[in-house]
Amino acid sequence: MSNFQTPVVMQSARSVLTQSSVKRRIDPIDAPARPLGSKRSALVVKRADSAALSAGHKTGLAAAGDSLLVSADGAVTFLLRATNFGLLMERTQRQVAGTRLVQTMVFRDVKSFDLWCAVEPLRFGDGLLFSKLVREGHAAFTARC
Predict the structure, then answer these.
(1) Torsions phi, psi of 26, nearest 5?
(2) Which of the residues in the chain have pLDDT under 50?
(3) Measured at the alpha carbon of residue 43, what is the angle toward residues 38 and 48, in degrees to the nearest 5?
(4) What does the alpha-carbon distance between residue 143 and residue 102 come to, in Å, rounded to a whole number?
(5) Cα separation of 104 and 85, whole Å?
């Protein structure tokens, strides 16, 4: 007598999960943005109007022969004017919160202007605007002489 048994084939367990067992949790970051409240949207509109108004106001103040240089984002503006006393420069820096820093300087000669340009931090931040400022400043000194 033999101990030989015939092999029995068993069905394998399912390895693929069904669609109903997989649930995706929606992350709050994927949700659409909430609309702004009335106070916040009014503040956004007020800031946009203020920026447009001040930009138009600055161009209205510039007289013939003045140079007005504005950075790409509008945060920094330079108004250059050649006077009998030297080069008058008004540097206006607009902050995010709505405050402004206005500096007015008079340079008597090119040397003092170049010394100021050597320490101006804008030369690293916006090189194109800085080079325009240096060119326009030197041109104003040559036009005055």
Answers:
(1) -85, 125
(2) 57, 60
(3) 130
(4) 26
(5) 14
Cα separation, 106 vs 135, whole angstroms: 17
Contact present, 77 and 66 (Cβ < 8 Å): no
The string of pLDDT tens digits covering residues 116-140 is 989 887 778 888 888 899 999 999 8
Q: Spell out the SS3 assignment of the chain.
A: CCCCCCCCCCCCCCCCCCHHHCCCCCCHHHCCCCCCCHHHHHHHHHHHHHHHHHHHHHHHHCCCCCEEEECCCCCEEEEEEECCCCEEEEEEEECCCCCEEEEEEEECCHHHHHHHHHHCCHHHHCHHHHHHHHHHHHHHHHHHC
């015939």: which residue's tokens?
6
What is the C-alpha separation between 63 and 92, in angstroms, rounded?
A: 17
Report the Cα 93 to chain-centroid distance in Å.
13
Distance CA 127, CA 10 (A): 76
